[in-house]
């Protein structure tokens, strides 16, 4: 299966995606995470995967070297070295890694974080990345494409996904997912609330009448404690998912970023 995992920044993508990785890891012979923002170390600390920071040495590796490494380390989080690898170079390295992964004859789960950087719409899609999305399923490969900018990811990736997990979106990113969902797209716009009569029963919130659109849940101190998503797939399954109900053994270590506080205007 190819799964598109999409929501705006701060919606809890990496937390939710990590839960998917953990729950599916043992069903595969290998799990490889292309970790752009260093958000999946929880899988390492729980012992579900090993860890490698991809920097100046690793960026020089060829396909054969990556193939050997990935065969020896089937469960691995490959973290981008932020100081040494910019976005363009990370895409080049991921292309080489993808070539190596395609040569390995095994059932494997590959997760690409910030996938719009690996497969950007405005640049030619690297053939190895395209093959992961278009032919990987038949070769025993499943993929998770995690992005906050579906408007910027190559459409080949989106069209080859058989399942969708979508949180809150707006603007051009909301427009980008419309062709792939068969229910009111405004369920993903937290600023609107489609009439309940237009929403399939299985996608209505079970704990309230409105808003019908997805929302984040906060505790009394204003801390986010969960978020709502809509799952759909090519088999016709649709359901509303609340990450307050997600449990996993690994701890999530991703950062949601620091707040900005206004100065005093006295």
Automatic annotation (TrEMBL):
Residue ranges, compositional bias (Basic and acidic residues): 205-219
Alphabetized SUPFAM superfamilies for the sequence: P-loop containing nucleoside triphosphate hydrolases (SSF52540)
InterPro entries: HerA-like, P-loop_NTPase
Disordered, as annotated region: 186-266
Signal peptide location: none
Biased composition (Polar residues): 242-252
Domain of life the protein comes from: Archaea
Name the UniProt record assigns to this protein: ATP-binding protein
Protein source organism: Halomicrobium mukohataei (strain ATCC 700874 / DSM 12286 / JCM 9738 / NCIMB 13541) (Haloarcula mukohataei)
């Amino acid at each position: 299966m190819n799964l598109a995992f999409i929501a705006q920044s701060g919606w809890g993508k990496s937390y939710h995606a990590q839960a998917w990785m953990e729950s599916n890891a043992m069903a595969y012979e290998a799990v490889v995470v292309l970790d752009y923002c260093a958000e999946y170390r929880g899988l390492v600390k729980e012992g579900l995967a090993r860890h490698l920071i991809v920097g100046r040495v690793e960026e020089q590796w060829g396909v054969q070297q990556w193939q050997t490494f990935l065969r020896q380390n089937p469960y691995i989080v490959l973290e981008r070295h932020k100081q040494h690898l910019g976005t363009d170079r990370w895409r080049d390295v991921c292309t080489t890694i993808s070539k190596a992964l395609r040569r390995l004859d095994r059932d494997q789960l590959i997760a690409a974080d910030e996938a719009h950087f690996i497969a950007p719409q405005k640049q030619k899609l690297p053939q190895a990345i395209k093959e992961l999305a278009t032919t990987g399923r038949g070769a025993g490969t499943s993929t998770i494409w995690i992005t906050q900018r579906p408007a910027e990811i190559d459409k080949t990736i989106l069209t080859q996904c058989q399942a969708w997990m979508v949180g809150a979106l707006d603007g051009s990113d909301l427009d980008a997912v419309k062709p792939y969902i068969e229910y009111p797209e405004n369920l993903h716009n937290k600023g609107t609330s489609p009439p309940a009569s237009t929403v399939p029963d299985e996608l209505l919130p079970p704990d309230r009448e409105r808003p019908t659109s997805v929302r984040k849940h906060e505790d009394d101190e204003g801390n986010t404690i969960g978020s709502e998503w809509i799952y759909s797939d090519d088999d016709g399954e649709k359901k509303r998912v609340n990450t307050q109900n997600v449990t996993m053994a690994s701890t999530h270590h991703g950062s949601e970023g620091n707040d900005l506080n206004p100065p005093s205007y006295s």
